[in-house]
TrEMBL record:
Domain (Link) ranges: 141-236, 241-331
Biological process per Gene Ontology, one example term: positive regulation of neuroblast proliferation
SUPFAM superfamilies per UniProt: C-type lectin-like, Immunoglobulin
Name recorded for this polypeptide: Aggrecan b
Keyword vocabulary terms for this entry: Disulfide bond, Immunoglobulin domain, Repeat, Secreted
An example molecular function term from Gene Ontology annotations: hyaluronic acid binding
Length: 339
């Protein structure tokens, strides 16, 4: 039997991902990860298309725990794995067989990570392979927002304004669906940008059945009159500065909290900014004032004394300005400063 040799040589087979890293697509959106290969062993340009279709293209998603295959392509056919059906495809293959560009849609936060484009080819009893990796970081977070302690007080226009006031925009259906796919669960109906009212449910119970009854999923009330009142789902994309926590033994009233942030060269953080800080790892088990007069705190390490066994931004709702809490401030990034 003729032995099969393994080569990992850039001089014969070269793969490139010509894009600035990391990729930063939006939650609920789509992204193209370009990948091209060149096999210098193919000298007969007339047979180039046939030859390159024999190359095997493989995209994988890599985490510290495992390596998941997204899709495999060869001989002009593409096999997408079950977990990525309807979300992943090769954009130009097999029309352009050396173009292994990957498109992914309906992006979720858990899609952040390392992606590997691998090309292999057998020629003259030699298996040649080459690979490149890309890093993708999903941007943005969806959060439920209630203007006052009582549910359902926002018309459609007031809902949009509430999101803007909290460093966000009203969420799209795609963004809410992506948040649901990441595990978001909220039994409160809220406006979306298409004038529909929906809410995401993973664990159905009688008050939260909606139109899906006992099935999990994003519930919908359909398109509603703009003067009806509900809560809202907002989408915070990114912030150029950072959120920080400030405390005092005596605590602060709301107006004292505003003064405290100003003394530190900052301002009160918004709810959207606190959610982004939480998404980036902020964990403080102490309630603090925010700009909308709500009181909240971010938990990334669940523990009993900090809201139970759940992670997230915990809320006391809007509080009287005379009550005493710590404060979350926001400072813009200075030129050349690393945040």
């Amino acid at each position: 039997m003729t032995p099969l040799f393994l080569l990992y040589v850039e001089s014969t087979l070269h793969v490139s991902i010509p894009v600035e890293m990391p990729l930063r697509p939006l939650l609920g959106g789509k992204v193209e990860v370009p990948c091209y290969f060149l096999d210098k062993s193919l000298n007969d340009t007339g047979a180039l298309t046939v030859a390159t279709l024999s190359h095997r293209i493989k995209w994988t998603y890599i985490t510290k725990d495992k390596v998941d295959t997204i899709l495999v392509a060869s001989q002009g056919k593409v096999e997408v794995k079950q977990d990525y059906l309807d979300r992943a495809m090769l954009v130009n293959y097999p029309l352009f067989p050396t173009d292994a560009t990957l498109e992914m849609t309906e992006l979720r936060s858990k899609d952040s990570g390392i992606y590997r484009c691998e090309v292999t080819h057998v020629a003259n009893n030699t298996l040649c392979f080459y690979l490149r990796t890309a890093v993708m970081c999903l941007i943005g977070i969806v959060f439920h927002y209630r203007a006052i302690s009582t549910r359902y007080t926002l018309t459609f226009e007031k809902a949009k304004a509430a999101c803007i006031q909290n460093s966000a925009t009203i969420a799209t259906l795609a963004q809410l669906q992506a948040a649901y796919d990441d595990g978001f669960h909220q039994c409160d109906a809220g406006w979306l940008s298409d004038q529909t009212v929906r809410y995401p449910i993973h664990h159905p119970r009688e008050p939260c059945y909606g139109d899906k009854r006992e099935l999990p999923g994003v519930r919908t009330y359909g398109v509603r009159d703009i003067n009806e009142t509900y809560d809202v789902y907002c989408f915070a994309e990114k912030m150029p500065g950072r959120v920080f926590y400030s405390m005092s033994v005596e605590k602060f009233s709301f107006y004292e909290a505003k003064d405290q942030c100003a003394k530190l060269g900052a301002r009160l953080a918004t709810t959207g900014e606190l959610y982004l800080a939480w998404k980036n790892g902020m964990d403080v088990c102490n309630a603090g004032w925010l700009a909308d007069r709500s009181v909240r705190y971010p938990i990334n390490i669940a523990r009993p004394q900090c809201g139970g066994d759940l992670k997230g931004v915990r809320s006391y709702g809007l509080r009287p300005a005379t009550e005493l809490y710590d404060v979350y401030c926001y400072v813009e990034r200075l030129t050349g400063e690393e945040l």
